[in-house]
Amino acid sequence: MKIKDDVVLMKFDQLGDSRGHLVVIEGTKDIPFEIARIFYIYGSDNDIIRGQHANKESEFVLINVSGKSKVRIKYGDYEKIIELNEPHMGVYIPKMIWKEMFDFSKDSVLLVLSNLKYNPNEYIRDFNQYLKEKNKGEYTYENKS
Ligand code: TYD
User: Could you tell me if 70 and 4 are in contact, meaning their C-beta atoms sit under 8 angstroms apart?
Assistant: First the structure.
């Protein structure tokens, strides 16, 4: 389900049998990019807000492989909260989308896949700076074919 400007809610196939489930994610097949980096976030209290940044280059898929959390995405004035609460659901977040992760359950393990290795210089951690960069018009997804 497309949410806004290429933020996409994804449901992955649940493989498996009577022994349990298995989810497979292959780069460029099940998600829109090759995977260069994975990291995961856990042990955050439910009053903690993580993220609070946009990326000039990195794209992400976020999956709560255990527990649940919420992701607030902002694209300019647009704002939406997505709850990640199943191990076979994810959200694809393209570059230049502001994101905040919050409301972590105690058992939350939030897995993040990215198309690029870590580069702190491509993170925008100031919301006004993000708006300024976005409004330069170099990141207009509406025009993407
Ligand atoms: P940060 O981006 O603040 O985490 P979050 O977005 O979840 O709130 O990163 C926390 C720390 O980890 C910070 O010191 C940078 C470091 N880090 C890496 O070294 N590599 C990575 O790929 C990421 C995502 C973070």
Answer: no
Nearest to 131 by CA among 58, 75, 80, 93: 75
Average pLDDT, the chain: 92
| Structure-block tokens of residue 131 | 């708006």
pLDDT tens digits along 78-101: 899 999 999 999 999 999 999 999
Give 15's Cβ-side CA count (13 Å radius): 4
Q: Is 41 in the pocket of ligand 1 (CB under 6 A)?
A: yes
Q: pLDDT at position 6, please?
A: 86
Nearest to 96 by CA among 4, 2, 1: 4
> Does the beta carbon of 93 lie inside 6 Å of ligand 1?
no
